[in-house]
Amino acid sequence: MNIAKYPFAILSAALFTVMFMTPISSISNLIWLTSADMPVGFITWIEVILFDFQRLGIALYGVVIIGFGIAFSVAGLISRYSSYSGKYLFAVAGAVAIGMALFLMVELLFLTYLLGGDRSIIGKILHCVAGFLGGYFFYSLVSVERSYTFIIRFLGVLYAYLILGSLLEWIFTPVNAAANFGFVLNDLSSAAQNALLRDFTSFFLAIFLFAIIGVVTLNPAWFFSASIIFIGAAIFNLVAIYIHGTEYNQIFITEFILGGWPAILGLIIILKKDKTKK
After folding, report:
1. Could you read off the pLDDT of 247-266 as tens digits, one per residue?
2. In 3-state terms, what secondary structure has residue 173?
3. What is the spatial distance between Cα 136 and Cα 20, in angstroms, rounded to a whole number?
4. Do the beta carbons of residue 139 and residue 85 sit within 8 Å?
């Protein structure tokens, strides 16, 4: 566990940092739109911030992981072979990593600013502050012994983060969400639209909440609840294809993966508890 905690600490610190960086970019874009007399209402603010947190966050997450991996490795070497050590060394390394990532993203993409917050000095500073906090968080994770629950919680949060994207689509852009499943929402009757929206939104909301509650309580029943929903969807997908003759699709593969993920987390918790009792 001592070795495993370092890569998972980087993944956790990167996700923690992205949670701060994406709202900075979203709010910067919204302020710019407002200054340009574009009609931006309260619902638009919420929609943009939440969607950027999920969609932009996934791509940004990969960039931050690479940056933190390099920065924290260098900081670790400096800490080991010099008198410089402690949480502030890693915090500064996190800030430098984000600053370099922002610079390289612009330079390598033909001077294109992918992040709205990167267009201003204040935005750049706030992004670097997010990196500083991420480095501080990384140090807090690796400075003490960690049990298997650390990895369980990270994987559970990551799972909920991925599910959040589908939930947000069904809440804010149901036409696009329905199209992903082969529905033309506007061609359906009003009753059918109602059924589709309420069932799918409830489906993803329940799974998201089960995952979050599982992370907080570490009760395997919550992870199994999320697993049952997705595995059930996968099984009945195959029933519809091979028994009822519906069109073949490969969504069941993703459903089995998303059903197996929380099931494995739940099983690990049970096995670890049984081993502790012995």
Report:
1. 888 889 999 999 999 999 99
2. coil
3. 14
4. no
